[in-house]
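Researcher: Next sequence.
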Amino acid sequence: MRKKGDSAFYRYDYGDGWKLEVVLEGILPREKNKPYPICLGGRLSGPPEDCGGIHGYYRCIEAIANQDNTDGLLTWLGDWRPDDFDPNQIVFETPEKRFERATQD
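Model: Next structure:
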């Protein structure tokens, strides 16, 4: 991605079928002594692991909003909250580190 509006897709968790699009919204001047990349913002929390894809994610949001513990969903979700997003908690790894970790025995 090199210019505003460029996008990239990636798939996560083939079992749940997540297909995500990342869009470059802008390019800011580089600040000296600041580690990059950084996340400046976003909305909604990442989905709970193995929640059942996008439909399961929305079901989790609905269960929280309605305090619906049908099938123990609220119990399973624990303290997860869909509006709990903090860009300062986003951690980027280099592709080399991710590859190394993924291929370790």
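Model: The mean pLDDT is 89. The first strand starts at residue 7 and ends at 12.
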